[in-house]
Amino acid sequence: MKIALIIENSQAAKSEVVHTALTSVAEPLGHQVFHYGMYAPEDKASLTYVMNGLLAGILLNSGAADFVVTGCGTGMGSMLASNSMPGVFCGLVIDPTDAFLFGQINDGNAISMPYAKGFGWAAELNLQDVYRKLFEGERGLGYPKERAEIMAKNRGILKDLKAVTCNDMLTVLKAIDQDLLKATIAGEKFKEYFFANATDEGIREYLKTVVSA
Questions:
Q1: Cα separation, 99 vs 148, whole angstroms
Q2: DSSP 8-state code for residue 13
Q3: Which element (helix H / strand E) includes 58?
Q4: Per-residue pLDDT of the chain in tens (213 residues, 90 and over written 9)
Q5: Is the pTM of this model over 0.90?
Q6: Quick one: which of 87, 90, 93, 65 has its CA closest to 79?
Q7: CA-CA-CA-CA torsion for 104, 110, 116, 122, nearest 10 degrees?
Q8: CB 113 within 8 A of CB 94
Q9: Cα–Cα distance for residue pair 146/149, rounded to 1 Å
Q10: Exposed/middle/buried for 40, CB within 10 Å: 0-12, 13-18, 19+?
């Protein structure tokens, strides 16, 4: 699985802590981690929580990522922005129990975490435990198990509902403020990671014109 990590500006100083925790768990399980920034507070390309959501939408809808790990101070802003995108189902995850239940019941494709609120002593251990609960086993099995069938049915209904209420991602990219879009994909490794992994030709070709403009 291709996992994308996205960090916003207020929490950029913790980027390495989050990245190390994620790779230490995900890579031994056979997953690839692509860190799309921010990497440090002084980065030239700055991401807001709104941009986090837009970037999550781009990466998931293009096939550049299978799962997105993001967050902000409370985790709520990035969650809301991510869920405004087509095809993105983002949960607010604070602890390993949240991660387990989100994976088994909702089986979404993104999580948002708080990197300021409650982020204290041994925070990196909580991160590692969260990522283990997300990535070490099969997701979507249901909890409790006897409700697995109805949970899967409801996930399908929600997916169909979102397909009706949201425009497709290419339409979104063409309609949004183009300065916002350019700033969102201005990270130093975006072009390297995105164009090597994205499979949706329409999104790929449109973003080529944006980054070369």
A1: 17
A2: G
A3: helix 49-62
A4: 999 999 999 999 999 999 999 999 999 999 999 999 999 999 999 999 999 999 999 999 999 999 999 999 999 999 999 999 999 999 999 999 999 999 999 999 999 999 999 999 999 999 999 999 999 989 999 999 999 999 999 999 999 999 999 999 999 999 999 999 999 999 999 999 999 999 999 999 999 999 998
A5: yes
A6: 90
A7: 50
A8: yes
A9: 8
A10: exposed
Closest CA to 52 of 68, 31, 33: 68
Contact criterion met (CB below 8 Å) for 92 and 79: yes
Three-state SS sequence of 86-153? CCCCEEECCCHHHHHHHHHHHCCCEEEEECCCCCCCCHHHHHHHHHHHHHCCCCCCCCCHHHHHHHHH
* Cα–Cα distances in angstroms (integers) from residue 212 to residues 58, 169, 208, in the given order: 17, 20, 6
Token reading at 91: 């949960």
Please give the structure tokens belonging to residue 103: 């994976």
CB atoms closer than 10 angstroms to residue 143:
13
Q: What is the DSSP string of 141-185?
A: --SSGGGHHHHHHHHHHHHHHHHHHS--HHHHHHHS-HHHHHHHT
